[in-house]
Structures are given as structure tokens and as C-alpha cells.
Write a structure and sequence with these properties.
Elements lengths: L4 E4 L8 E2 L4 H4 L8 H9 L6 E4 L11 H10 L3 E6 L6 H9 L4 E5 L5 H7 E2 L3 H14 L5 E8 L7 H11 L3 E6 L17 H12 L6 E2 L15 E2 L5 E2 L8 E5 L2 E5 L12 H5 L2 H12 L7 H5 L6
Parallel strand pairs: 1-3, 1-10, 3-4, 4-5, 5-7, 7-8, 8-9
Antiparallel strand pairs: 2-6, 10-11, 12-13
Helix pairs in contact: 2-3, 3-4, 4-6, 7-8
């Protein structure tokens, strides 16, 4: 049975500048999700099995983040939060433990302080790892902590060390994402994914007994879109996929592609369930899922979206 997921961007701002992220260049919003609107969203979450907080902006920058996490968890679905970890202080760690957070994903893209700070400008790897260890020491049974690493030109040769870092720090698993080539300087000859299988293979070899917990997306020519998870922007707009949160130029297989922002309604005006059950939304989803796709491929042409 397919897990029904939804993403929520609590904020469209971040406290670090990431070299492969399109947020600073293209995102028109610098707002945060209004807490009263979050209450309306929570009322419609019974349809979903999992809520993922943290798509573009850094969720811990929301001024009422701890309350937001508790509210979303009370709504019932499995709760996943993705953060860069710099604001995961002891008080926030305790709040997430108390809120019964299911999964904490921490984005780490460099295995040494020098590599990390080149990619996440303004970031301090030592501080992030200290914060992670604090959370690991305080979490309750069943609360999972994963490292998320985005593979791109600046760190593709760092995968082995990143896997060792995940293992030695005590993460439960390590997951790879592949950088979406939003701008020309991170486009490679194989479209920004590099030799993904080789990079993951090297990481697993380096991880030893941790190897079975090093995971990455697998691309199939027949499965249709694997990234089609609805997401709610800080303004309350529902988009069919995180890749469509904002309009921008990006690249696919070495050619420029224009990604259009696509909203199917605002949850402040129309209940969430009414939007995702609307004929327009269901038709879009049906087209995307029926498309054959590699990392994106024909889906981008047939459904009008673009995926990593």
C-alpha cells in the first residue's frame, strides 16, 4: 500500500546559504506559515499517513516551531522533520522528543568542517554534530535519526567519508539525494546526478556493517513519477510536488528547462481535503503517475513538472 505523504514548508527562509540550493536565487517568499493557518491544515491531515516538515526553508526558524511540531503530531500522521541541524539546541531537542517526533533528518553534505562550510556557507559541522549527539542521547525508543546527503559536483568524492561519519556519529541510516541542477555551474555531463550508483556503492563499501542502512533513490524507466508528494507553501498554497514550489530555470540532461509554479488552491480559502480531491488535482496526479520516467524524463513533458 502506498504511503500518503504531504510536505509542509513552515518557512521560506534559511539560516545557511547552500551552494546547490535554489532557495536564495529563485524563491519569491521570505515569509513563515501563519500559526492559525497551520491549525486549519492539521484538521485535514487525517487523510495522510506521513507529514514531512522542511522542504525549502529551514523549519527550525519558525518562531513557533516547537508548538507547530506538537500540533502536527497530535493530528495523527507520522511526523518527519528535515533540518540542517544548526538550530537544534537542547531545548528544541527536548521539544521534539516530547512531541513524539518519528523521524529527524539532518542534512550534512561534507565530512570535514572545511568541506561542510564550503557547501553550507556559514555552517559549523562540529556544532551540528554536537546537536545531533544531544538529540540522540535524549530521544525515546522508536524516534529515528537519519543523515541526508545531497550529492553534487563539490562533494561527489566525499561519499565514503560521509558514510563513515554517519556510522560513527550514531545515525540510524544515511540517505542520498541527488542535486537538482538549478543553475549551470552544477550541471555535469550526466545531468547533475553524476555516477550515482558508483557513489552509493563506494559509500556502502566504506560503511562496513552500516552498509545496509545506506540508501538512495532508484530510478526506473517504468514506474512513473516517484517524487509526486503534495506540499504546502508558507503562504498556504498547495502544490503537487516540492519541485513546483517556485518558478525557475533549471537543467535536465544538459538542456535548460523552465519550471512553472503550480498551485491548486490555498488551504486558507479551501479545505485541504477538498483541494486534493478536486478533479483538476486528481487529473494532474493521474497524468504524472501514468508517465514513464527515469529521474524525470517524459513526466516533465507530459505533466508539466520537473523532478530531481
Amino acid at each position: 500500500m502506498t504511503t500518503r505523504r504531504i510536505g509542509i514548508d513552515l518557512t521560506a527562509v534559511c539560516n545557511l546559504r547552500c551552494t546547490m540550493c535554489a532557495l536564495d536565487r529563485f524563491h519569491p517568499s521570505r515569509g513563515v506559515l501563519d500559526f492559525s493557518l497551520l491549525g486549519e491544515i492539521a484538521a485535514g491531515l487525517s487523510f495522510f499517513d506521513e507529514v514531512h516538515v522542511g522542504w525549502c526553508g529551514e523549519p527550525l526558524m519558525h518562531p513557533r516551531f516547537a508548538e507547530a511540531a506538537a500540533l502536527l503530531k497530535r493530528a495523527g500522521p507520522r511526523l518527519v522533520v528535515t533540518t540542517n541541524g544548526t538550530l537544534l539546541d537542547p531545548g528544541t531537542a527536548d521539544a521534539l522528543v516530547d512531541a513524539r517526533l518519528d523521524v529527524l533528518n539532518v542534512s550534512i553534505d561534507g565530512s570535514t568542517p572545511e568541506r561542510y562550510s564550503r557547501i553550507r556557507r556559514g555552517g559549523d559541522l562540529r556544532a551540528v554534530l554536537s546537536n545531533v549527539r544531544t538529540y540522540l542521547a535524549r530521544r525515546k525508543p522508536g524516534q529515528c535519526v537519519n543523515m541526508i546527503s545531497t550529492v553534487h559536483a563539490e562533494n561527489v568524492d566525499d561519499m565514503e567519508d560521509l558514510a563513515r561519519l554517519a556510522r560513527d556519529t550514531g545515525f540510524d541510516a544515511m540517505a542520498f539525494n541527488f542535486a537538482v541542477p538549478h543553475f549551470s555551474e552544477i550541471v555535469s555531463s550526466d545531468s547533475g546526478t553524476f555516477d550515482a550508483a558508483r557513489a552509493v556503492g563506494r559509500a556502502r563499501e566504506a560503511a562496513g556493517a552500516f552498509a545496509d542502512r545506506v540508501v538512495a533513490p532508484s530510478f526506473s524507466a517504468s514506474r512513473g513519477c516517484a517524487y509526486l508528494t503534495p506540499a504546502i507553501t508558507p503562504e498556504g498554497d498547495l502544490v503537487p510536488c516540492a519541485m513546483m514550489l517556485f518558478e525557475r530555470d533549471t537543467f535536465y540532461r544538459g538542456r535548460a528547462v523552465r519550471v512553472a509554479r503550480r498551485s491548486f488552491g490555498n488551504v486558507g480559502a479551501v479545505p485541504l481535503l477538498r483541494i486534493i480531491e478536486s478533479p483538476d488535482y486528481l487529473a494532474f496526479v493521474g497524468t504524472a503517475r501514468a508517465s514513464s520516467a527515469d529521474s524525470c524524463g517524459p513526466c516533465a513533458l507530459n505533466a508539466g513538472c520537473f523532478c530531481p
